[in-house]
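Notes, Module 5: Reading structure tokens.

Key idea: the token line is not a picture. It is a compressed description, and you learn to read it the same way you learned to read a sequence, by spotting repeated patterns. We will look at two proteins. The first is printed below with its tokens.
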Amino acid sequence: MHKSYQSILPCQSRILKERWDRKYYDEHRDKVREAKSVVDTKPPTTYVHLHLKLKKLQLEEERLATVERDNRILLEKMSQIMRTKGRVDNHNDYISRSLNKEKRRRELIRVTQENQEILKRILAREPEYNHLEWDKEWEENENFMDNVSRYPRDWWELEKQEQEMRKQELKERRKKDSKKSKSKKRTKSREEKSPEAREEQEEMEEKDEDKSEEKDEDKSEEETEAEEAATTG
């Protein structure tokens, strides 16, 4: 095994060099193992009174003792009631007598009289500001603002109303145009066909009219939305 050992420093005998190195390494490990740490890494000391709270246990025992005593007294009373069918004396003939009753009554009367006088003064007082004059002044100011302002009041609501009127006018125009065109087509087709075919055609045309009206309404809504987007943009 000594031939496989490769020393760091040059040496004449690998066997001796290996033994010496192993001895030095063992001594080094012993020194490291027996070295005393500079920092105290021991766990902190534990105190019994922090973990075992005797005072708390004593208070808990006293509370349980009082609860047990009260329960025992209540049980004795209940058993006595069950044996003797219970007798309760709830009569109280005591008449309450107060030394300052008359004084408190006079004080209450005085306070109520003062409150009534204050209320009368408040109700009899006329206001210093006339709200009717304020309303007139506000109306005049609004008229002045309307004359000076560039746009009328609630102009966004007026725009909405105008857009709705335009939508309704467009719908009415399209309905009229579609009815005129369809009436012309019907007259031409009726003149060419027999009476039986005319009746069938009339039924088909009524169905087509309902469908076309729905489509026209959808188109008019889309166009109006596009116009609104263009105006807002």
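Here is the second protein, with the sequence above and the tokens below, as before.
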Amino acid sequence: MTDRVYPSSKPNANGGAAAAPAAPAAATTAGTTANPPSTKPQLRQPYRPKPQYHNRHHRRSSRNLCCCCCFWSFLILIAVALLAAIAGAAVYILYRPHRPEFTLTSVRIAKLNLTTTADFSTSHLATLFNLTLTSENPNNHLTFSYDPFTLLLSTTRDVQVANGSIPAFTSATKNSTFFRSVLSTSQDLDVESVKSLRSDLRKQSGVALRLQIDTEVKLSMGKLRSKKVGIRVTCEGIKGVVPKGKTPSVASVSNSKCNVDLRIKIWKWTF
């Protein structure tokens, strides 16, 4: 039989027993040599902010809310305007409101003197008129409450010849009011006004005059009362002649016609 030889587990004197575990170290060194560390610089990835979906959703919600508010506000305005139009149409159909009517009954000229100094430096105008007006309310349910009237009489060339006033009064439903007024003036005229007035006084048909009446009126219908509204009455077609002596002359008013216009004031503008 062949004898088996078993290696001794004791360390060799020359360090031969320690050579066996050195193999792994050699393997490690070999592995390190086989895969050397990379020397290339590593590139950084660019920063990309994450989309903020929450902010976009919030902006869209705010925008939608604003659009909804504008839409409903517009609808409310249209509804209010429609209701106002319906209410106005109902009032008009039920009550049939009409403007007041004014008629110039008579005009008497007691004085119409235009004098000029010897050196033609100054021209003076002195006049005196007596007139009668009629105010009529044709409405069945509407009452007019007038403020004091301001009257201005002038030629059709805008030369003022007299002015006056009428006190305040109330015109009830289906009522006619007669009132008289005295208009006069005493003033110096400029050269252009003198030329224009002298030319009118020479006409055989008489001086063409225009009466302008301004006031404010408040309308009432039962318990309903409106704010004051400006009103202007313009009467044209008046022909007057210069009186002779102390006897007043009577102006022709047969062709006169008075137009009534509402004067609505908005801030600085009057319509």
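Summary for the second protein:
- DSSP finds three helices and 14 strands in the chain.
- Residues 243 and 249 are 5 Å apart (CA to CA).
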